[in-house]
């Protein structure tokens, strides 16, 4: 099956590219006309729509992640999310933002997490499997994204 294969609709046939453009137009109309979704960007992803709906129904929360350059990233995650879920959400947010702005496409997240910590109220979010609620992180709380300091090795005696 090729990407140009014809998609049959009630009004005729269209190729894959035309069908995708049609879907994008319908999504844009839905997003701009719905008061719940109107804050989303024009090139919205289904994941962003689901996150916004979950947020509205109280099934998700926003965690504001402050970078070292004082830029705040509003990250939407589920209420029972873990530190690892937050890290993945940050990755998706940054990658999507870069694609939309035409910036650098690849970031080594393994390197980023090796060199940076997430902090909340002076405590490192070290355990990826620990829930954010266990760190007492709630809706609209601010988590700081800072560079790890090199840990001093104890001098052997």
UniProtKB/TrEMBL annotation:
GO BP: any one term: mRNA splicing, via spliceosome
One Pfam family per UniProt: Ubiquitin_4
GO cellular component, one term: U12-type spliceosomal complex
Cited Gene3D superfamilies: Phosphatidylinositol 3-kinase Catalytic Subunit, Chain A, domain 1
Annotated SNRNP25 ubiquitin-like domain residues: 61-149
SUPFAM superfamilies in the cross-refs: Ubiquitin-like
Coiled-coil boundaries: none
Name under which the protein is recorded: SNRNP25 ubiquitin-like domain-containing protein
Organism whose genome encodes this protein: Potamilus streckersoni
